[in-house]
Protein backbone atom coordinates (compact mmCIF):
# COMPACT_ATOMS: atom_id res chain seq x y z
CA UNK A 1 0.00 0.00 0.00
CA UNK A 2 1.34 3.43 -0.95
CA UNK A 3 1.63 6.26 1.55
CA UNK A 4 -1.14 8.19 -0.22
CA UNK A 5 -3.59 5.28 -0.01
CA UNK A 6 -2.66 4.80 3.64
CA UNK A 7 -3.41 8.45 4.37
CA UNK A 8 -6.73 8.34 2.48
CA UNK A 9 -7.71 5.22 4.42
CA UNK A 10 -6.99 6.92 7.75
CA UNK A 11 -8.95 10.03 6.73
CA UNK A 12 -11.98 7.94 5.72
CA UNK A 13 -11.80 6.08 9.00
CA UNK A 14 -11.66 9.44 10.76
CA UNK A 15 -14.85 10.59 9.03
CA UNK A 16 -16.60 7.42 10.17
CA UNK A 17 -15.55 8.07 13.77
CA UNK A 18 -16.73 11.68 13.59
CA UNK A 19 -20.05 10.57 12.13
CA UNK A 20 -20.38 8.12 15.03
CA UNK A 21 -19.72 10.86 17.59
CA UNK A 22 -22.27 13.16 15.95
CA UNK A 23 -24.88 10.41 15.79
CA UNK A 24 -24.44 9.34 19.41
CA UNK A 25 -24.61 12.91 20.76
CA UNK A 26 -27.68 13.65 18.67
CA UNK A 27 -29.30 10.43 19.84
CA UNK A 28 -28.62 11.25 23.49
CA UNK A 29 -30.27 14.61 23.01
CA UNK A 30 -33.30 12.98 21.38
CA UNK A 31 -33.86 10.51 24.23
CA UNK A 32 -32.97 12.87 27.11
CA UNK A 33 -35.86 13.85 29.39
CA UNK A 34 -37.27 17.35 29.41
CA UNK A 35 -38.66 19.74 26.84
CA UNK A 36 -36.14 22.00 25.04
CA UNK A 37 -38.80 24.71 24.89
CA UNK A 38 -38.57 25.08 28.69
CA UNK A 39 -35.01 26.34 28.24
CA UNK A 40 -36.25 29.19 26.07
CA UNK A 41 -39.51 30.33 27.68
CA UNK A 42 -41.10 29.97 31.08
CA UNK A 43 -42.89 26.62 31.57
CA UNK A 44 -46.03 28.62 32.37
CA UNK A 45 -46.06 30.24 28.91
CA UNK A 46 -49.15 29.84 26.80
CA UNK A 47 -49.53 26.64 24.77
CA UNK A 48 -49.78 28.73 21.58
CA UNK A 49 -46.40 30.36 22.21
CA UNK A 50 -44.77 27.06 23.09
CA UNK A 51 -46.15 25.43 19.98
CA UNK A 52 -44.92 28.31 17.83
CA UNK A 53 -41.41 27.94 19.24
CA UNK A 54 -41.45 24.20 18.62
CA UNK A 55 -42.47 24.84 15.05
CA UNK A 56 -39.77 27.48 14.53
CA UNK A 57 -37.09 25.15 15.92
CA UNK A 58 -38.27 22.21 13.85
CA UNK A 59 -38.99 20.12 16.95
CA UNK A 60 -42.26 18.95 15.43
CA UNK A 61 -40.43 17.37 12.49
CA UNK A 62 -39.67 13.63 12.51
CA UNK A 63 -36.43 12.75 14.25
CA UNK A 64 -34.72 11.70 11.02
CA UNK A 65 -35.53 15.10 9.47
CA UNK A 66 -34.01 16.88 12.47
CA UNK A 67 -30.95 14.62 12.18
CA UNK A 68 -30.42 15.39 8.49
CA UNK A 69 -30.85 19.12 9.09
CA UNK A 70 -28.32 18.97 11.93
CA UNK A 71 -25.80 17.18 9.71
CA UNK A 72 -26.32 19.78 6.99
CA UNK A 73 -25.58 22.52 9.50
CA UNK A 74 -22.41 20.79 10.70
CA UNK A 75 -21.11 20.53 7.14
CA UNK A 76 -21.08 24.34 6.87
CA UNK A 77 -19.69 24.80 10.39
CA UNK A 78 -22.99 25.57 12.13
CA UNK A 79 -22.91 23.91 15.57
CA UNK A 80 -26.27 25.33 16.56
CA UNK A 81 -27.51 28.14 18.78
CA UNK A 82 -27.51 28.32 22.56
CA UNK A 83 -30.82 29.88 23.56
CA UNK A 84 -29.77 30.07 27.19
CA UNK A 85 -26.75 32.23 26.34
CA UNK A 86 -28.28 33.77 23.21
CA UNK A 87 -25.07 33.07 21.30
CA UNK A 88 -23.81 30.88 18.51
CA UNK A 89 -22.37 27.61 19.80
CA UNK A 90 -19.40 27.80 17.43
CA UNK A 91 -18.38 31.15 18.95
CA UNK A 92 -18.73 29.82 22.50
CA UNK A 93 -16.58 26.81 21.63
CA UNK A 94 -13.81 28.61 19.73
CA UNK A 95 -13.29 31.27 22.41
CA UNK A 96 -12.50 28.55 24.97
CA UNK A 97 -10.12 26.54 22.77
CA UNK A 98 -6.94 28.55 23.55
CA UNK A 99 -7.23 27.94 27.31
CA UNK A 100 -7.72 24.19 26.84
CA UNK A 101 -4.84 23.94 24.35
CA UNK A 102 -2.57 25.88 26.72
CA UNK A 103 -3.35 23.46 29.53
CA UNK A 104 -2.93 20.34 27.37
CA UNK A 105 0.36 21.53 25.87
CA UNK A 106 1.68 22.63 29.27
CA UNK A 107 0.82 19.21 30.74
CA UNK A 108 2.63 17.57 27.80
CA UNK A 109 5.71 19.73 28.37
CA UNK A 110 5.73 18.84 32.07
CA UNK A 111 5.47 15.16 31.20
CA UNK A 112 8.26 15.21 28.59
CA UNK A 113 10.68 17.26 30.69
CA UNK A 114 10.31 14.94 33.67
CA UNK A 115 9.56 11.57 32.11
CA UNK A 116 12.26 11.15 29.46
CA UNK A 117 15.28 11.89 31.71
CA UNK A 118 13.69 9.80 34.47
CA UNK A 119 13.12 6.90 32.08
CA UNK A 120 16.71 7.08 30.82
CA UNK A 121 18.10 7.10 34.37
CA UNK A 122 15.86 4.18 35.34
CA UNK A 123 16.91 2.12 32.31
CA UNK A 124 20.63 2.76 32.65
CA UNK A 125 20.67 2.11 36.41
CA UNK A 126 18.59 -1.02 36.62
CA UNK A 127 18.04 -2.55 40.07
CA UNK A 128 19.50 0.50 41.75
CA UNK A 129 17.72 2.92 44.13
CA UNK A 130 17.13 5.42 41.30
CA UNK A 131 15.44 2.69 39.24
CA UNK A 132 13.23 1.67 42.15
CA UNK A 133 12.35 5.30 42.78
CA UNK A 134 11.37 5.89 39.15
CA UNK A 135 9.31 2.70 39.10
CA UNK A 136 7.52 3.71 42.30
CA UNK A 137 6.86 7.18 40.88
CA UNK A 138 5.38 5.65 37.74
CA UNK A 139 3.12 3.36 39.74
CA UNK A 140 1.89 6.19 41.96
CA UNK A 141 1.42 8.54 39.01
CA UNK A 142 -0.68 6.07 37.03
CA UNK A 143 -2.77 5.17 40.09
CA UNK A 144 -3.50 8.72 41.28
CA UNK A 145 -6.72 10.34 40.00
CA UNK A 146 -5.94 13.78 38.57
CA UNK A 147 -8.92 15.43 40.29
CA UNK A 148 -7.72 14.23 43.71
CA UNK A 149 -4.17 15.35 42.97
CA UNK A 150 -5.49 18.74 41.86
CA UNK A 151 -7.40 19.20 45.10
CA UNK A 152 -4.35 18.20 47.14
CA UNK A 153 -2.12 20.62 45.23
CA UNK A 154 -4.58 23.43 45.90
CA UNK A 155 -4.87 22.63 49.60
CA UNK A 156 -1.12 22.27 50.18
CA UNK A 157 0.70 24.56 47.73
CA UNK A 158 -1.98 27.21 47.21
CA UNK A 159 -3.95 27.41 50.47
CA UNK A 160 -1.42 26.21 53.05
CA UNK A 161 1.79 27.76 51.68
CA UNK A 162 0.39 30.36 49.27
CA UNK A 163 2.95 29.52 46.58
CA UNK A 164 0.45 29.42 43.72
CA UNK A 165 -3.05 30.76 43.05
CA UNK A 166 -5.96 28.38 43.54
CA UNK A 167 -7.26 28.69 39.99
CA UNK A 168 -8.63 30.92 37.25
CA UNK A 169 -6.60 32.39 34.40
CA UNK A 170 -6.48 36.20 34.39
CA UNK A 171 -4.33 36.36 31.27
CA UNK A 172 -3.78 33.99 28.34
CA UNK A 173 -0.45 32.90 26.91
CA UNK A 174 -0.89 34.92 23.70
CA UNK A 175 -1.70 38.10 25.61
CA UNK A 176 1.19 37.48 28.01
CA UNK A 177 3.66 37.08 25.15
CA UNK A 178 2.26 40.15 23.38
CA UNK A 179 2.75 42.17 26.56
CA UNK A 180 6.32 40.86 26.91
CA UNK A 181 7.19 41.75 23.32
CA UNK A 182 5.56 45.18 23.25
CA UNK A 183 6.43 46.43 26.74
CA UNK A 184 9.41 44.32 27.72
CA UNK A 185 7.81 43.44 31.06
CA UNK A 186 7.32 39.80 31.99
CA UNK A 187 4.68 40.39 34.66
CA UNK A 188 1.82 38.91 32.61
CA UNK A 189 3.93 35.91 31.58
CA UNK A 190 4.90 35.22 35.20
CA UNK A 191 1.22 35.51 36.18
CA UNK A 192 0.28 33.02 33.48
CA UNK A 193 3.01 30.60 34.58
CA UNK A 194 1.90 30.77 38.23
CA UNK A 195 -1.70 30.04 37.31
CA UNK A 196 -1.00 27.18 34.91
CA UNK A 197 1.62 25.33 36.99
CA UNK A 198 -0.71 23.41 39.31
CA UNK A 199 -3.30 22.46 36.65
CA UNK A 200 -0.52 21.31 34.31
CA UNK A 201 1.03 19.13 37.03
CA UNK A 202 -2.34 17.64 37.97
CA UNK A 203 -3.25 16.88 34.36
CA UNK A 204 0.21 15.71 33.31
CA UNK A 205 1.05 13.35 36.18
CA UNK A 206 -0.54 10.26 34.62
CA UNK A 207 1.05 11.17 31.29
CA UNK A 208 4.44 11.60 33.00
CA UNK A 209 4.23 8.15 34.57
CA UNK A 210 3.19 6.58 31.26
CA UNK A 211 6.06 8.14 29.28
CA UNK A 212 8.54 7.22 32.03
CA UNK A 213 7.60 3.55 31.80
CA UNK A 214 7.58 3.64 28.00
CA UNK A 215 11.01 5.28 27.89
CA UNK A 216 12.44 2.83 30.39
CA UNK A 217 11.17 -0.25 28.54
CA UNK A 218 12.28 1.12 25.17
CA UNK A 219 15.73 2.01 26.44
CA UNK A 220 16.21 -1.42 28.03
CA UNK A 221 15.21 -3.09 24.78
CA UNK A 222 17.61 -0.93 22.74
CA UNK A 223 20.50 -1.32 25.19
CA UNK A 224 20.43 -5.07 24.61
CA UNK A 225 20.91 -4.81 20.84
CA UNK A 226 24.23 -5.58 19.08
CA UNK A 227 24.84 -2.06 17.78
CA UNK A 228 25.18 -0.79 21.37
CA UNK A 229 27.91 -3.33 22.06
CA UNK A 230 29.63 -2.30 18.83
CA UNK A 231 29.58 1.39 19.70
CA UNK A 232 30.91 0.64 23.18
CA UNK A 233 33.72 -1.40 21.62
CA UNK A 234 34.66 1.60 19.50
CA UNK A 235 35.23 3.57 22.69
CA UNK A 236 32.34 6.04 22.34
CA UNK A 237 31.35 7.79 25.59
CA UNK A 238 28.42 6.26 27.43
CA UNK A 239 26.48 9.54 27.44
CA UNK A 240 26.80 9.80 23.65
CA UNK A 241 25.62 6.21 23.19
CA UNK A 242 22.62 6.66 25.47
CA UNK A 243 21.33 9.96 24.13
CA UNK A 244 22.42 10.04 20.48
CA UNK A 245 21.82 6.43 19.50
CA UNK A 246 19.72 4.53 22.05
CA UNK A 247 17.30 7.30 23.02
CA UNK A 248 16.92 8.37 19.39
CA UNK A 249 15.78 4.88 18.40
CA UNK A 250 13.41 4.84 21.36
CA UNK A 251 11.72 8.12 20.42
CA UNK A 252 9.48 6.83 17.59
CA UNK A 253 6.97 5.03 19.85
CA UNK A 254 7.26 7.85 22.37
CA UNK A 255 6.38 10.42 19.70
CA UNK A 256 3.38 8.30 18.72
CA UNK A 257 2.13 8.14 22.30
CA UNK A 258 2.79 11.88 22.74
CA UNK A 259 0.53 12.71 19.82
CA UNK A 260 -2.23 10.32 20.85
CA UNK A 261 -2.10 11.43 24.48
CA UNK A 262 -2.32 15.09 23.46
CA UNK A 263 -5.76 14.34 22.06
CA UNK A 264 -6.62 12.47 25.24
CA UNK A 265 -5.45 15.40 27.36
CA UNK A 266 -7.72 17.80 25.47
CA UNK A 267 -10.72 15.62 26.20
CA UNK A 268 -9.54 14.62 29.67
CA UNK A 269 -9.01 18.17 30.87
CA UNK A 270 -12.70 18.43 31.81
CA UNK A 271 -12.24 17.47 35.47
CA UNK A 272 -8.97 19.36 35.89
CA UNK A 273 -10.48 22.54 34.45
CA UNK A 274 -13.41 22.20 36.81
CA UNK A 275 -11.18 21.74 39.87
CA UNK A 276 -9.06 24.79 39.02
CA UNK A 277 -11.86 26.88 37.44
CA UNK A 278 -9.75 26.99 34.30
CA UNK A 279 -11.75 28.80 31.58
CA UNK A 280 -11.51 26.11 28.92
CA UNK A 281 -13.83 23.79 27.04
CA UNK A 282 -14.03 21.36 29.96
CA UNK A 283 -15.41 23.92 32.40
CA UNK A 284 -17.84 25.19 29.80
CA UNK A 285 -19.00 21.63 29.12
CA UNK A 286 -19.69 20.99 32.82
CA UNK A 287 -21.65 24.25 33.10
CA UNK A 288 -23.62 23.34 29.97
CA UNK A 289 -24.50 19.94 31.44
CA UNK A 290 -25.74 21.55 34.64
CA UNK A 291 -27.89 23.92 32.59
CA UNK A 292 -29.05 21.18 30.16
CA UNK A 293 -27.86 23.38 27.30
CA UNK A 294 -27.89 20.60 24.71
CA UNK A 295 -26.77 22.60 21.67
CA UNK A 296 -23.66 23.67 23.57
CA UNK A 297 -23.07 20.16 24.95
CA UNK A 298 -23.27 18.71 21.46
CA UNK A 299 -21.00 21.37 20.00
CA UNK A 300 -18.25 20.86 22.58
CA UNK A 301 -18.34 17.05 22.38
CA UNK A 302 -18.24 17.12 18.58
CA UNK A 303 -15.37 19.62 18.59
CA UNK A 304 -13.35 17.48 21.03
CA UNK A 305 -14.09 14.39 18.93
CA UNK A 306 -12.96 16.10 15.73
CA UNK A 307 -9.80 17.36 17.42
CA UNK A 308 -8.97 13.89 18.70
CA UNK A 309 -9.48 12.36 15.24
CA UNK A 310 -7.35 15.03 13.53
CA UNK A 311 -4.50 14.50 16.00
CA UNK A 312 -4.68 10.73 15.52
CA UNK A 313 -4.56 11.06 11.74
CA UNK A 314 -1.58 13.42 11.98
CA UNK A 315 0.28 11.04 14.31
CA UNK A 316 -0.49 8.03 12.10
CA UNK A 317 0.73 9.85 9.00
CA UNK A 318 3.90 11.02 10.76
CA UNK A 319 4.60 7.54 12.10
CA UNK A 320 4.05 6.00 8.65
CA UNK A 321 6.42 8.58 7.17
CA UNK A 322 9.13 7.81 9.73
CA UNK A 323 8.56 4.06 9.56
CA UNK A 324 7.29 3.04 6.06
CA UNK A 325 6.83 -0.57 7.20
CA UNK A 326 3.64 0.54 8.99
CA UNK A 327 2.01 1.23 5.60
CA UNK A 328 2.34 -2.42 4.59
CA UNK A 329 0.92 -3.85 7.81
TrEMBL record:
Domain ABC transmembrane type-1: 97-315
GO biological process assignments: transmembrane transport
Xref: CDD domains: TM_PBP2 (cd06261)
GO cellular component: plasma membrane
InterPro entries: BPD_transp_1_N, MetI-like, MetI-like_sf
Compartments where found: Cell membrane
Positions in coiled-coil regions: none
Pfam families: BPD_transp_1 (PF00528), BPD_transp_1_N (PF19300)
Alphabetized UniProt keyword annotations: Cell membrane, Membrane, Transmembrane, Transmembrane helix, Transport
Transmembrane segment boundaries: 12-31, 103-124, 136-163, 192-211, 252-276, 296-315
Domain of life: Archaea
Membrane topology: Multi-pass membrane protein
PANTHER family: DIPEPTIDE TRANSPORT SYSTEM PERMEASE PROTEIN DPPB-RELATED (PTHR43163)
Family classification: Belongs to the binding-protein-dependent transport system permease family.
The protein's name in its UniProt record: Peptide ABC transporter permease
Lineage: Archaea, Methanobacteriati, Methanobacteriota, Stenosarchaea group, Halobacteria
